[in-house]
Structure to design on (151 residues):
């Protein structure tokens, strides 16, 4: 009799633990954000650093809350609508084909709250020569640790 009760309690506990584990696994899955850019619109850090060193005409915008790359205009977090509007104002009189590079680097790109709103806004404004600095991990690891120029 006692064995039967213990057996039923054990089965019940296994069921409860299994249910909790299963539901936790379902709520912690990571679904990457969709990207408004394509691979050709990414620019590698070494390429941008070379452009800066060789004084190539390109406008660089810091759309995050990270250290400024040499020559970049600091806009602030583009996830904030005021900063996004400031970026739009900065570019108001710019030619639509002007070379533009935006970057954040606050966190891994797949989690960044700033790059997608800025990239989408630039596309909506019909800018045709926009690149996103490819900082897969963050600005420190992908830019600063390589000795690329900062202010």
């Amino acid at each position: 009799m006692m064995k039967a009760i213990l057996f039923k309690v054990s089965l019940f506990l296994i069921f409860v633990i299994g249910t909790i584990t299963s539901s936790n696994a379902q709520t912690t899955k990571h679904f990457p954000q969709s990207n408004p850019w394509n691979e050709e619109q990414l620019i590698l850090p070494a390429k941008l650093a070379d452009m800066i060193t060789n004084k190539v005409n390109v406008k660089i915008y810091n759309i995050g809350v990270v250290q400024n790359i040499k020559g970049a205009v600091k806009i602030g977090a583009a996830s904030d609508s005021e900063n996004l509007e400031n970026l739009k104002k900065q570019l108001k009189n710019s030619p639509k084909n002007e070379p533009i590079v935006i970057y954040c680097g606050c966190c891994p790109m797949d989690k960044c709250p700033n790059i997608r709103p800025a990239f989408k806004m630039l596309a909506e404004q019909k800018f045709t020569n926009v690149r996103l600095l490819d900082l897969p991990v963050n600005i420190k690891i992908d830019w600063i640790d390589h000795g690329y120029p900062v202010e």
Q: What stands out?
A: The chain has one domain: 39-146. The helical segments are 2-27, 45-53, 81-90, 115-124, 139-142.
